[in-house]
Amino acid sequence: MKRAISCLFFCFMIINLFAYELGSETYDRYTIFDPDARALGLTYPVSWLQPGAFLFQHDFEDSSYTYARWDQLFMVDQAIKGYNLSSDIVVKYIPYSFPQRWGVGLEFIDYKGSTKRNDVVIHYKHNKGSIEYFRTENTQSVTLGTGTTDHMITSNGLQFDYQASPEIRILGGINYNLIDQQDAISRNYDTFHEFAEIRFTLKKPFILYGKFEYRHFWNDGQQSNFMVFRPGARYQSPKMVAHLAFRISPKRIFPIAQIIYRPKPFFIEAYAKVRTPRIILKQQGHQYVGVKTGLKYKKKKHYLHAEIDTYYDFVRKVMPDSVIINDFYGIKAHGEYRFITSLMEFYGRASYNRTFNELLGYYHPELSTITGGAVFHAKLADGKLLLDGDINAQYIIHDNPENVRFDPSTLTYTLQEAGDYVGDWKINMRLKARVQTFSIALEVSTPLKANKDLYYYLYEGIYTSSDFEFGNTFYTGLYIEWCWWK
Description:
Distance between the termini: 6 Å
Shape: globular
Largest sheet: 24 strands, mixed
Helix content: under 10%
Strand content: over 45%
Radius of gyration: 24 Å
Number of helices: 3
Low-confidence stretches: 1-32, 76-82, 463-471
Number of strands: 28
Mean pLDDT: 80
Structural class: mainly beta
């Protein structure tokens, strides 16, 4: 029986990198304020309002599961000409309690100068259902060239799932966010959200459902309610998905439709959906339509995945004597190819994301990221030592930071004036060695630019915006893991 007793990560050293959001994968420019990562109806990233996704993942197959992680960070601070020690501790525990299951996950984070937060997730599961509670209490500081803005957030959430019968499933939940923002002016952005949903399965491919949602927003004395009922039907088979629903509110009715046809390896999708506003007190929901197509192909030595999504948003603001049209449109695309051998994988991937004539809150400065690299695997010492490595180069294309303005009160970007795109190079490497249940990994990431001295790499790097004091600089980290099974 498998028993995961402990895992330890430590000595993750970062040189002068203010971690605007947690995790080394978020150190890319413009990452955390991407509109697609925003919470519903807010400009805040979802990850600021909820614990990390890892705490919500539950593996109840083990009779007992324990996980622990510790990241120790070393950060050079140019402002004080010194250094800070920071830490991130994660603990998960799922005890033996069959046929019931329950688990708890905790995370304690103290990143000097940017983030302090405590997270907890408690999950209980029985034969017919489950209930889950989470709480996040954190302070997110965004350091700007003109000062620091603190976003102090407390979030609570409770969700349940109950299978009343083979045909009927009932879901529901309540979320409550208390947000205080402080810089030169103090602000409050508090939200309350509850929902209830019932699903009825006619036969295996057919599902009928109805979902009711209620949201309430407070914004410095202003209030707004958001009430929606969504009845719908869904059909799903190996080659076809069809979905038809309506979003019904006291003032508007929006149709929702989706049809997907997927003869392998290709697929094509046409849809009509509703986009909830980013800033709930200043914008209204609106209809948008789009077409998405792509392919996914995998053989022994070749892997290919590509998608392209084009969309058009219909935005109408009705005035007493006129109708203001603010339509916008955009395109998203990504692709990846891998050539696979027993010891090596060579890969290339690229992404593209652009919105044109967008409303406030939908603009994002990054245009494209192109990555090329290789992964290798090796067995040494008669297979007792396993080595894995990944080295890649990235080229990041974006609007010129001199033409971009960032608003810390709404966490939104605006393009002040059009100009030529600029590009930045970045090199990333990861080397991991494992002996039985012990593993150690080294991570290195650095910007790359000709004719630059050490000061550039340690203190300048890739700027996220002309308003940010620090950008994406050099960092290195050491990762250690120890587990055993019984």
